[in-house]
Amino acid sequence: MTSTESPNLRKSIILLLVCNALAALLLISNFTGLYEVIWQSLDTRIFRSLNSTITPDGFLTQFWAWTNSKTFDRATFVFMLAICIYLVVSTRREERIDVTARIGAITFLILIALLVSKKVIGDFIHPSPGLVLTPFNNINDYITGYTVKTSTDNSFPGDHAMTSALFAGGVIMLFRNRPYVAILSVLLMIFVSVPRLAGGGHWFTDVIVGGGAACLILLPWLKISPLVRWIDSLLTWGWTKAPAFLKR
Predict the structure, then answer these.
(1) pLDDT per residue over 69-104, tens digit each?
(2) Does the pTM exceed 0.85?
(3) Alpha helix ranges (H) inside 68-95
(4) How far apart are the C-alpha atoms of 57 and 115, rounded to whole Å?
(5) What letter does residue 246 receive in the DSSP assignment?
(6) How many angstroms separate the CA atoms of 100 and 244, rounded?
């Protein structure tokens, strides 16, 4: 190990320890007696405040309904994909593999988070406010033609909020020269997260603790691991094998 590598390794270890410790504190605060002290009142107030905007024939009712729908879920995926495509095509040709590798690294972390959420935490019982804080203003009572999820037994973590937070965090970390793209990613995260709080499908802590812990645990690896470099090498190798007409 060279003299340069040693300080870098120490910094990486410290960064991991600090971020994982903060993630652990967030999770402990949500799943121990500390929840009643720190989060419970805030969870209830945020839900009641947002849910009170759901009224018969109200504009916000229709907005919350649409942003809780499967159609909106598909639209957010398309929007994220459009951001990725824009990042690639708006870059100089010789830098596109590097940009694609960065996007690939962010995607890889999101897939890890979803895998853990579905396979490890998937059966964890954590009722949403739509089950706990009844009665409440149910969006489905005021819309026709489709229904949206307003309650669940497994509300932690908020998968949509978690993935959009990881995406926004990854863009901020790896594309600092594109601040407007980072702003769009953060706005997307907000538009994805808040409707779930208003509708009753998630608590505020499902978003802030679940998404925050995922970001603290996973995003540091974008900086301290060779993940981007490995994906870049794989893409470069694949590009050398690609047909000549694709390289024109």
Answers:
(1) 999 999 999 999 999 999 999 999 889 999 999 999
(2) yes
(3) 70-89
(4) 39
(5) G
(6) 20
